[in-house]
Amino acid sequence: MEAPDLLLGAILLLCVAGLLWPFLIYPLILRLLPSRPEAPGGGAPPSASLLFCAYNEAAAMPEKLANLAMLKERHPELEILAFDDGSSDDTAALIEARGDLVTLVRGPGRSGKARGMKRLAAIARGDVLIFTDANVMLDPEAVGNLLARYGDPDVGGVLGSLHYVGEGESATASVGSLYWRIEERLKDEESRTGNVLGADGSIFSIRRALYPQFPDSVLDDLTVSMAVVFAGKRLVKARDVIARERLVTGRGDEYRRKVRIAARAWHTHAYLRPQLRRMAAIDRFKYASRKIVRWFGGLFLMAGAVAALLLAMRISPWLALGGVLLAVVLLILGWRAKGGPLAAIVDILIAYAATLQGVVKAMSGRTVTVWNPAKSR
């Protein structure tokens, strides 16, 4: 085999390894690591404040408020705070009508979730701050099970488990559900072996004393949850703290959502870099494996495709042409399909493209501070 062939083969293998690393190789490594058990809890659970931000969530508010009323009935001492980010629908009015249940803070206009959460955290009185989203519903036992984990003084933050609803409504929803099931298992293993490396906004909590200061441009979920690790406390996941959210079913909505999240995540990574470098070696390994490698999955995919094409051309130009034509036909069929494996493959490729676009956008100095609810949710 000639040197160019060896080089192209090495590039292809490296790209395949990069694509498989966060979903196959990294989980296998985690399973080999020893467990780090939590200390048994004791005493009365800490007080808590539940915080969420909303923008044009009027459609979700009746169910959300009913869910909050159920939680309040089970935990009368639970403080509930909401921030409205200048909604143009009836979101604020619906929340305000339940002033007996929720304390509403109105923003001056579109200022973004990070600023809204900071305002709520500044007035919250609970020892533990519980963060969730306006369209997320919590199971009845969620708050009690979450607060019980704080019986271990080394635990500084607790994540819940997100269960998606509407998995079979589209190929986009099915791929999103599969991705999230993998993500949940990774967090379970990370928690078992020490720390989870970052939370999403559906359901997580931290001790109020650990809440950090940060700019409005970062991803607040990642920034706030990582403050626990930076403080030398444990960030763990509780399987019995269950939140439920409806999946995004439209490709356009999901693409824009992933671009926004990736852009803010990379901007947050740049902001947190000095503290990330000071983490323990195992936590740096986890962070790089679950986040950085995945953010560049689209680059691995493109480089691997080019290497495979060049290898095929060196064997036979006709082989390369046939491969390209077959790939184009399969992509067209997958794009038009309403479901099935080809549609799923297209949605996976779209997800990689959106994430890479978001990272490149952030690297160029641009980020996103506001959000819009997905219409296809």
Topology:
Blueprint lengths: L2 H30 L15 E7 L6 H14 L4 E6 L6 H6 L6 E4 L6 H11 L4 E5 L4 E2 L3 H7 L6 E11 L5 H22 L10 E5 L12 H11 L3 E13 L4 H27 L3 H15 L1 H19 L1 H20 L4 H23 L14
Parallel strand pairs: 1-2, 1-4, 2-3, 6-8
Antiparallel strand pairs: 4-7, 5-8, 6-7
Helix pairs in contact: 1-6, 1-9, 1-10, 6-12, 7-8, 8-12, 10-11, 10-12, 11-12
Descriptive terms for the model:
alpha/beta; Spore Coat Polysaccharide Biosynthesis Protein SpsA, Chain A; eight-stranded mixed beta sheet; 12 helices; 14% strand; kinase; membrane; Histidine kinase
Give me the CATH architecture of the domain at 48-250, please.
Alpha-Beta Complex
Q: Oligomeric status of the shown chains?
A: single chain
Molecular shape: globular
CATH superfamily membership of the domain at 48-250, which one?
Spore Coat Polysaccharide Biosynthesis Protein SpsA, Chain A
Task: Give the helix/strand class.
Answer: alpha/beta
β content, as a range?
A: 5-15%
Supply the number of helical segments: 12
Which stretches of 5+ consecutive residues score pLDDT under 50? none
Whole-number mean pLDDT: 90
Number of strands: 8
Q: Cα-atom Rg, whole angstroms?
A: 22 Å
**How far is the N terminus from the C terminus?**
52 Å
Mind describing the biggest β-sheet?
A: 8 strands, mixed
CATH class (first level) name of the domain at 48-250 = Alpha Beta
SSE pattern, N- to C-terminal: HEHEHEHEEHEHEHEHHHHH
| Percentage of residues assigned to helices | 40-55%
In spatial order, strands of the major sheet run 3-2-1-4-7-6-8-5
CATH level-3 fold name of the domain at 48-250: Spore Coat Polysaccharide Biosynthesis Protein SpsA, Chain A
Protein name: Histidine kinase
Domain Glycosyltransferase 2-like: 49-211
Family: Belongs to the glycosyltransferase 2 family.
GO molecular function, one term: kinase activity
